[in-house]
Amino acid sequence: MKAEIITIGTELLLGQIVDTNSQWIAKELARYGINLYYKATIGDNKERMIETLSNGLKRSDLIITTGGLGPTQDDITREVVAEVLDLELVKSQEALAQVKSYFKQADRPMSDNNLRQAYLPQGAKIIKNNQGTAPGILVVQDNKVIVSLPGVPLEMKAMMKESILPYLKEKFLDDERIYSKVIKTCGIGESSLETKIADILREQENPTIAPLASQGEVKLRLTAKANTKQAAKELIRHEEQKLQGRIGEYIYGYDDDTLEKVVADLLWDKDLTVAVAESCTGGLVGHRLTNVPGSSAYFERGVVSYSNQAKQELLNVKKTTLQEVGAVSQKVAQEMALGVKNLAKTDIGLATTGIAGPSGGTEEKPVGLVYMALAINDDVKSYQFKFNGGRYRVKYLTAQTILNLLRLELLN
Amino acid sequence: MKAEIITIGTELLLGQIVDTNSQWIAKELARYGINLYYKATIGDNKERMIETLSNGLKRSDLIITTGGLGPTQDDITREVVAEVLDLELVKSQEALAQVKSYFKQADRPMSDNNLRQAYLPQGAKIIKNNQGTAPGILVVQDNKVIVSLPGVPLEMKAMMKESILPYLKEKFLDDERIYSKVIKTCGIGESSLETKIADILREQENPTIAPLASQGEVKLRLTAKANTKQAAKELIRHEEQKLQGRIGEYIYGYDDDTLEKVVADLLWDKDLTVAVAESCTGGLVGHRLTNVPGSSAYFERGVVSYSNQAKQELLNVKKTTLQEVGAVSQKVAQEMALGVKNLAKTDIGLATTGIAGPSGGTEEKPVGLVYMALAINDDVKSYQFKFNGGRYRVKYLTAQTILNLLRLELLN
Q1: Which end of chain A is more exposed for a tag (fewer CB within 10 A), N or C?
Q2: Where are the domains of chain B?
Q3: Is B2-172's fold the same as B259-411's?
Q4: Which 3 state secondary structure label does DSSP give A106?
Q5: Per CATH, the architecture of A177-254 is what?
């Protein structure tokens, strides 16, 4: 069964709103194991709506449209569906009753143009809308299903859940189930990761494995098909074990996990506290650690020591060190991490110092050069990195890297 | 000129990510007066990619694709573009040099599979990617333009701004000029703002005025059409003057201005320095102030005093104050702002303390209650706010508000 989503509305083509409807529907269809092969967006234009819907009918078995069911003149989805399917547009007493009842319940007067919403393609099933005025439409023709829902997310979602998804489940679903899991990695680039698992990627079949890079991390999406959800999960579990063996150290989490949440859970489990001394990241490490609810349990303080004065006063960095090797150096990173740990009396101290750019770089210390340090117990480890990109990217990658270094340390 | 966007990636069809790329591109095209008639989304599937791109070429003059340019086996946009346009896929020394130089700058080893990214359709113009490994492609055939960009939003946006939009402007835009300007406001909600300018909104014609609310700010997009850019600009200038008279105090900037950049410019102009004491914002105020290049000229230090201990040690907040009124209080905010200003010896001290939630609220001090203070010269001003929403939103609105309070103070 092939599905297609068509979202309708000129505001989508002007970029005035983000189309979150199609993402939501896509997720629901995936949960039900319905293959979505196409998404299309068009404006409130009759000709292009007809073209796109006709095209969809040639290649897909299920078409879900959103938008264009309102009472105004540019809401023409009803007309277009009728025309493409060669059906009459007729007044439906049932739809009229629903529109009227909505206004009565809302205690609002109904305008004449709401009457348009009671005209539907002949033989269409009416999809009740409990949240708004526009009834939805469901038509079956030549074994293909065309569903039209309003564009208001709240209304669309309720109608999908209450009517459309149960209908599709009843009518179409065979025993095949799709189950998907995202593995999140950090500390390795997309191509190096792919090289490490090249044979696994080459032999992939079921589950499929798709790498996906975003800022500071690479995800692997595993998707399995089987007759039961349990069997699909088992396929994923087996593949995941193989991947764990190869790239386990880079895997920080799954699905909706964030790196800061994973680090927070580790700190919580081990009952450890942390303090942060930031220079080039300017507060971003503290910001991310405190995005996790309950962070006051493990986050004691952060110091954004942008000036040398602040490094000396708040972190006990030695004046002589600053003079001898400069603020952007391994030694200063170490002194910052130790300093914040000792002053805050925490178990762990983190530090970042670097040149975020775009200016301030030299041949010896170029833009993107960053030193980090991690002080834990009586030990202090330090690291040198060279990141590429603009100021924000250097800050982000530095924060991502130090959080990942902390994660690895906590796992040992 | 008819444009079409094709976003590529199975993750989009599984609903795992929201397609924000196409909205961003749509907005930019609208700004340039380029008509976008279709958007399509397909997975990493050769057959359907060929079908969709071929279809697009029949009806549109400009096609922009995103995604599928990475180094891995399922990244096949290069192959598909070559096949649809009937071009050879050839190795480009220029593209190879760019990929290599990216890895060199990042001081990372390049894997063999990155070589795939150097193969481009014969005659394609290479679009430089300064943020990642995947070069973009621009091909002109039969007066139609096909642009392929990576799916990573940061990379795609930079390449659009640096290369594609200037190219389109140069090549295609005719005499009717659309000129658009965004007015950015802060410190007032969307409906209050609309009420203040209700008559102006009602009478809008050319330029049109579109309000657009986003987190912590409301924008007004003014769009004028005229025969020359100069005339369009003049129409905007006239309308802007009217708006300035009504809502001037809320306007913090225009177009790509950020609140932190505007504040940075004011600090720079007045030769003033600032230090920040953060509790509930966890480092976000420091992070934002240091996102501006050159921020070390005015940002001396930040202190994220999450614990009471840190508030006393690093900011000289009195133990008795903490005991009497609690950490989330007007008095503590004042002492934090004064403390950080005095210790850092800066002209200005900022402070935030509040309950970001989701837990930790009481009847007397609910989640979302935030106190802020601003110490300047011998004066300290404090403010109480109650924000709605989740943890991240409370943090963001607090940072936005204190930056805006600083902006207003600097203007006086």
Answers
A1: C
A2: 2-172, 177-254, 259-411
A3: no
A4: helix
A5: 2-Layer Sandwich (3.30)
Q: How many Å lie between the alpha carbon of A103 and the closest alpha carbon of chain B?
A: 25
pLDDT at res. B202: 84
Place of tokens 């139609």: B144
Give domain B259-411's CATH superfamily.
CinA-like (3.90.950.20)
Q: A50 vs chain B: nearest CA distance in angstroms? A: 13
Query: In CATH, what class is B2-172?
Result: alpha beta
- Residues A260-411: name the CATH superfamily: CinA-like (3.90.950.20)
In the 8-state DSSP scheme, what is residue A243? H
DSSP of B134-180, one letter per residue? --EEEEEETTEEEEEE-S-HHHHHHHIIIIIHHHHHHHH--SSEEEE
Listed by number, the residues of chain A in 252-281 with a beta carbon closer than 8 Å to a beta carbon of chain B are: 276, 278, 281
Q: What is the ipTM of this complex?
A: 0.72
Measured torsion, CA atoms of residues B377, B383, B388, B393, in degrees rounded to the nearest 10:
10
Test the A interface: residue of B6, B41, B42 with most A CBs within 10 Å: B41
Q: Which of B28, B39, B291 sits opposite A13 (nearest CB)?
A: B39
Strand stretches in A129-250, DSSP E = 136-141, 144-149, 177-185, 208-214, 217-226
Q: Are B349 and B273 in contact (CB under 8 A)?
A: no
Interface contact B122, partner A, CB < 8 A: no
- For residue B395, the one-letter residue type is K
First to last CA, chain A: 48
Q: What is the CA radius of gyration of chain B?
A: 26
Report how far residue B397's alpha carbon sits from residue B408's, in angstroms, rounded to the nearest whole number: 16
Strands B208-214 and B144-149: unpaired
User: What 8-state DSSP symbol labels residue A110?
Assistant: P
A27-41, A248-262, A298-312, B242-256: segment of lowest average pLDDT: A27-41
Average the pLDDT over B15-30 and give the result.
Answer: 91
B70 CB within 8 Å of a chain A CB: yes
Unique residue bearing structure tokens 């397609």: B19
Ranking A106-115, A314-323, B31-40, B143-152 by mean pLDDT, the lowest is: A106-115
